[in-house]
């Protein structure tokens, strides 16, 4: 499993370095947390003063004794001191909590945002093969649900543990000064509690890993169904999908129940140890009061401190066990981050300005993961500006061929050359800049029409956007909309018709002005009338660009110079009627090697 190879220490170390840029905020939080320590030490004091000096006849503690000179006023003054101290402690405590809440929320959100952004950036760089294998929701879940682990570990893990540790030391010291025997009893439980916590963490760790994994898989059903809701509704499968979701959810519930049972058992054990310690302290304390070693107020003070000692021990052990869920999430997040990106640039990767557009496939073989071969010994060459139609039965490898050209995947064997250089030798970003893509199902984003057209060239001016829209014959339609180019198209452009969406994506390709054009069945989702208009636009778009157009309809191939056929991943024989256009273009076959030279005359092609 992708995420299980990291130890808790690895995850902890890496989360700390992820949080490092916010160390000042975290330090502030720690200081505010440490304020808790003196306040906890002072908390039982009003009760001691009230019992010993207001009810009883003990003098006030020396640092307060100077405030009261007349002994007849002492009970009243002691009561006033106890009252004032209780209110002051409560107010300071509330102010401290308020400041802590604000700083904790701010820092927590910043930490999560930074980690999410890092994961999101990396998820976009991962290969399509990774996303094909794991499903897109897997990454979504890691980005949204697992990224907060960075704040769980730092803000809800380390800081409470450090603050509680300091409080613990203070409490033990003060208790020991008052009555060392009671302090020793309280202290004796700590190792037992820590031991129980350690066993607890070991038991619960694999369960949390499983729970996070199952939760991701369950939520992926929601994502899948909502993204294809039209189909689900059309087939009336809402009930089935709900049941599928419920079935997976039941497994999550079972795992979480198991975790709750483990937590419950260990809490019970820890509670029992703590209760035994508190009862022992009470019994010894009462004996000490009877023996005159302690006053009643001091006993109450010590009992207060003993609870305060056990409180931090509880906080520390609880924080340590709840860190397990954070570590499980961290393992998943780093599992994603450690996947190597798409296609990493070689150290000596060469820059590429604007390619001429000569493309060569040289004995290319390709298979997806463990699957069967998708391309088999494909070799052909086209000169710049050649318009290549790609035909073949469904599943024959047409899309795979263009996916390799864009370097969505690398060939398993062989090479693809652009302008005579292996694609892998170029900087990936520069290489991808050479392409404009128009897909069968146009992809629009939930933004304005202008933003959608400028997607491939965000720096384009309004005028350039309008010119591209004119070239794609969609300007008039856009101009007629109440908000024109600022019209928001909704999620995936759903407020527009298929033909309108396709023209906008053609405008995007015009604006991109790339030397190589990839068209994947660009007319298959529109009606015959729209198709005619789009084919005309395509003709202009292809001019001067090396074009690969996948099509089933012959009418879409009308502007092609050559046509190649793929069958079961192999390049088929040349199509006799291939060069449909009058543009110079020719096909030759040399054994298995298929070439298309734009410079040859059409006459020779026909003669062949
Ligand atoms: N992501 C993938 N993972 C595994 N196998 C895949 C993947 N994509 C495609 N294939 C397989 O590779 C082969 C070629 O698929 P490809 O999509 O290239 O065919 P195509 O000719 O474009 O089909 P169509 O005309 O139906 O779009 C098919 O057998 C297909 O099942």
TrEMBL record:
It is a multi-pass membrane protein. GO terms for molecular function: ATP binding. It comes from the Bacteria. Residues 359-593 form the ABC transporter domain. This is ATP-binding cassette subfamily B protein. It is found in: Cell membrane. The chain crosses the membrane at residues 24-43, 76-95, 152-174, 180-196, 257-285. InterPro entries: AAA+_ATPase (IPR003593), ABC1_TM_dom (IPR011527), ABC1_TM_sf (IPR036640), ABC_transporter-like_ATP-bd (IPR003439), ABC_transporter-like_CS (IPR017871), P-loop_NTPase (IPR027417), Type_1_exporter (IPR039421). Pfam families: ABC_membrane, ABC_tran. Belongs to the ABC transporter superfamily. Keywords: ATP-binding, Membrane, Nucleotide-binding, Transmembrane, Transmembrane helix. PANTHER family: ATP-BINDING CASSETTE SUB-FAMILY B MEMBER 10, MITOCHONDRIAL, ATP-DEPENDENT PERMEASE MDL1, MITOCHONDRIAL.
């Amino acid at each position: 499993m992708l995420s299980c190879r990291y130890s808790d220490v690895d995850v902890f170390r890496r989360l700390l370095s992820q949080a490092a840029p916010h160390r000042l905020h975290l330090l502030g939080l720690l200081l505010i947390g440490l304020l808790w320590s003196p306040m906890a030490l002072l908390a039982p004091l009003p009760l001691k003063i009230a019992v010993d000096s207001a009810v009883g006849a003990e003098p006030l503690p020396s640092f307060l004794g100077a405030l009261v000179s007349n002994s007849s006023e002492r009970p009243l003054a002691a009561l006033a001191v106890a009252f004032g101290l209780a209110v002051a402690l409560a107010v300071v405590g509330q102010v401290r909590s308020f400041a802590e809440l604000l700083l904790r929320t701010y820092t927590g959100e910043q930490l999560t945002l930074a980690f999410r952004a890092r994961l999101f950036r990396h998820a976009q760089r991962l290969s399509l093969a990774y996303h094909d294998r794991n499903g897109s929701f897997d990454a979504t879940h890691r980005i949204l649900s697992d990224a907060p682990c960075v704040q769980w570990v730092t803000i809800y893990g380390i800081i409470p543990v450090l603050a509680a540790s300091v409080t613990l030391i203070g409490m033990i010291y003060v208790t020991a000064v008052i009555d060392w025997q009671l302090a020793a009893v309280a202290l004796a439980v700590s190792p037992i509690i820590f031991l129980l916590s350690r066993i607890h963490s070991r038991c619960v760790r694999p369960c949390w890993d499983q729970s996070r994994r199952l939760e991701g898989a369950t939520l992926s059903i929601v994502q899948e169904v909502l993204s294809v809701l039209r189909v689900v509704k059309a087939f009336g499968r809402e009930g089935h999908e709900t049941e599928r979701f419920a079935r997976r959810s039941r497994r999550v519930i079972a795992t979480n129940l198991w975790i709750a049972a483990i937590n419950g058992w260990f809490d019970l054990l820890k509670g029992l140890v703590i209760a035994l310690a508190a009862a022992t302290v009470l019994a010894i304390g009462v004996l000490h009061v009877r023996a005159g070693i302690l006053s009643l107020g001091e006993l109450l003070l010590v009992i207060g401190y003993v609870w305060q000692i056990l409180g931090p021990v509880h906080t520390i052990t609880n924080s340590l066990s709840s860190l397990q869920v954070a570590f499980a999430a961290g393992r998943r997040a780093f599992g994603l981050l450690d996947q190597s990106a798409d296609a990493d640039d070689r150290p000596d990767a060469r820059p590429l300005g604007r390619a001429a557009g000569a493309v060569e496939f040289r004995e290319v073989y390709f298979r997806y993961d463990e699957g069967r071969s998708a391309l088999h010994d494909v070799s052909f060459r086209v000169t710049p500006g050649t318009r290549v139609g790609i035909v073949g039965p469904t599943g024959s490898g047409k899309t795979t061929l263009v996916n390799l050209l864009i370097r969505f995947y690398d060939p398993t064997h062989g090479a693809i050359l652009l302008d005579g250089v292996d694609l892998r030798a170029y900087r990936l970003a520069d290489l991808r800049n050479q392409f404009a893509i128009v897909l069968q199902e146009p992809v629009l984003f939930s933004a304005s029409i202008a933003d959608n057209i400028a997607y491939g060239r965000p720096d384009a001016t309004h005028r350039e956007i309008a010119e591209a829209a004119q070239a794609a014959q969609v300007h008039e339609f856009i101009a007629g909309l109440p908000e024109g180019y600022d019209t928001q198209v909704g999620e995936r452009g759903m407020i527009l018709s298929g033909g309108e969406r396709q023209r906008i994506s053609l405008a995007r390709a015009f604006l991109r002005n790339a030397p190589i054009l990839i068209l994947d069945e660009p007319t298959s989702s529109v009606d015959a009338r729209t198709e005619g208009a789009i084919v005309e636009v395509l003709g202009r778009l292809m001019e001067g660009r090396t074009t690969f157009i996948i099509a089933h309809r012959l009418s879409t191939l009308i502007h092609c110079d050559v046509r190649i056929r793929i069958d079961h991943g192999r390049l088929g024989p040349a199509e006799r009627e291939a060069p449909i256009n009058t543009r110079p273009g020719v096909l030759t076959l040399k054994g298995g090697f298929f070439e298309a030279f734009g410079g040859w005359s059409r006459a020779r092609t026909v003669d062949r």
